[in-house]
Amino acid sequence: MNNIQAFNYFSILKQYLGPLEKIIQLNRNNMLGLKLPTDPRWVNIVEKNIEEILTDHAYCEQKATSTAISLIVSFPEYTELVQEMTKLVKEEISHFKMVHDKIIARGWTLGRDRKDDYVIQLVTFFPKGGSRTTQLVHRLLYAALIEARSCERFKLLSEELEDQELAKFYRDLMVSEANHYTMFLNFARQYGDRKEVDQKWQDLLEFEAEIMQSLSKKETIHG
């Protein structure tokens, strides 16, 4: 390849790289089902208070543990679900310890829990009551979406944080969150009517996108 050919080749490549990156990003968001990506400027807010994001993250892991335990207690007759939730309890509490260790290593102590505006708003979408199966499906869909948004946030942190230690930490955790998202969504589809569950999932995603429009303004995992 001569110099002129090389110049033409890289000019063409540069022309298509921009749109290609956008396509890749869209595909990643679609894989999670999310309708509205997090504003990247959220990372700038996070970097101003790493202690706060780690504290909030620690409690997110603790709440994920509680969710898994609650599903076991509420729906013990779903044997496969109980088995997977038992594994999830162990995994989520180990993640809590990992985050707590990060806090200690930086000379801080775990702060108090704070309310999660995102989750508080999200869980108002489905009406209360209904059959046990309906209640289970709704709880599984909530859990799936929370995990999907966490995964998206972890991905953003892994790519944009200047703190390379934390960037790698969130890159490693991102995979776990993606697995949790698909597990909860698959269980909802397994226990409920597939067509009905998929419609509820799409409706919940639209609602979540509306919630997200007023968030991404705090140094919290979901806020």
* Pattern of helices and strands: HHHHHHHH
Helix content: over 70%
Taking pLDDT < 50 over at least 5 consecutive residues as the criterion, the unreliable ranges are: 3-29
Distance between the termini: 52 Å
- Helix segment count? 8
User: Could you report the average pLDDT, rounded to the nearest whole number?
Assistant: 88
Biggest sheet record: none
Radius of gyration: 20 Å
Share in β-strands: under 5%
Overall 3D geometry? globular
Structural class: mainly alpha
Pfam families: MiaE
InterPro entries: Ferritin-like, Ferritin-like_SF, tRNA-Hydrxlase_MiaE
Protein name: tRNA-(Ms[2]io[6]A)-hydroxylase
Organism: Aquimarina litoralis
Give an overview in words.
- The chain has 223 residues and is mostly helical.
- The chain has helices at residues 3-32, 42-47, 50-74, 79-105, 117-122, 132-160, 164-191, 194-212.
- Helix 6 packs antiparallel against helix 7.
- It starts with a helix and ends in an 11-residue tail after the last helix.
- 30% of the residues are buried.
